[in-house]
Amino acid sequence: MGGKKRRQVEKSASEFSWKTLALLMCLGAQTMIMEIAMPRILAPTFGNTLFCWTAIITVVLSALAIGYYWGGRLASRKNAPGIVIFFSAGSAIWVLLLGVWGQRLTPAFYGLGIKTGPMLTAILLAAVPAILSAAVLPMVVERRRTQAGLAAGECYAWSTIGSVAGVLSTGYFLLPQLGIKGTMMTAAAMVFAALALQGKTMIPAAGVLLTAAVYFMPASGYAHAVFDKSNGYHRIFVVESDPRKNIRSLFLDNSLEGSVSKDSAFPVLSYQQMIADIAKQVPGPESAFFIGGGAFTMPVYLKTIFPGMSINAAEIDPDVLSTAVTFLGLKPEFNILIGDGRCLLRDQSETYDLIVNDAFKGMKEIPFHLVTQEFHSLVASKLTAKGLYAVNVIGLPSRSRFTRSLLYTLSREFDHISIVPNSSGCTENIWILASRSPLHYGRQPLESEMDRLLFSDDRSPVEFLIARDFTD
Length: 472
Fold this sequence. Notes:
The chain is α/β, with parallel strands linked by helices and 472 residues long. The chain has helices at residues 2-46, 50-74, 80-105, 113-143, 148-197, 202-215, 270-273, 275-279, 297-305, 318-327, 341-346, 373-381, 401-411, 462-471, and strands at 225-230, 235-242, 247-252, 255-261, 287-291, 310-315, 335-338, 352-357, 383-394, 416-421, 429-435. The radius of gyration is 27 Å and the shape is elongated.
């Protein structure tokens, strides 16, 4: 009898070892998949900013702490095994529905601003599944009273392995290939599969039916959208902004990046039309380098005006390029480079008559490394003696701390700075020009339009200045 009982105990421990650990691993993966995907849900409303990432990381870590504590309090209850199943299924169902309705809910919190909005939205959307998933772990550890230390080590190790797998798979495969909805469905499906291993067939079966139903639910989209895709950089979508005039517009997250007419190379947006006058400030311009491709409207237009000009355009996201080719009719007659604009500019052996920085996404998403003194020093070294640097900014100096700090930082590297307002379009959209040579286009910035904050690679508080611009 003693031998038979020992074998039963060993069999029970073996079943615990792989079935239960598989559940913990899938729950860990699900939590990380949700955490990596959540900024994509927040981005169309709040932008893909530091505040969004800070909010979701803070919420998930806090939720894990609450879940671990709550699970520890529930672990000694007789019905703890049933709670484990209930919490696991509940978290999977929540994540599944989050993939469909998450982006439909976030606009309701837009009025809270780019700092408070992401935090409250992340709490409401992501806290519950993270708490439920975390609560399972201490209850599982409690089920194996013998060798508690070994059990705790195994449980946390496999949960962490699942988390690592969730992070890698989301960034390298799930989001780029399946989008937000498909990514969340995959995360939930893994947990349902792990529950099936526990012998609870009804719950996984219901989960499969729910997953199938969710598959056919339309994901949140945009009116007149002809393309919609999320990847590792942005949510990219193209809309028929004016079908009568055959005009399509490209959006990245919540920012309009460009509009094109299939019938003409002439830019639709007024600030992009100004690139011709900007280029003409350089006597006999022969070369240009664009940082930020988007719809590639400006390099296309510039090439039609200066057919002999050598143009390089840097775009960090290859999906943006393929979208422009497929849906915006791009047929580039210039060189397109894929990668970070600063890195690509640094690697260029030639100098340029015109360098254009059009990589800022609206007012909220500013790549900090493209506004620093070190970057401007690089730009200056890549300009010819007659060369001109042009940066597109949304925000008048009188209203924007960010713009005032950018002007001050530019003034530390360039002798001549001018501001060119976009009088025919959005009044907040301006061009800032910088050169070693005198400028005769636009106006010089006033002393009051320059804050004494120098952007550097070490300190560039871009998001915080932008947040103050929105709240003041």
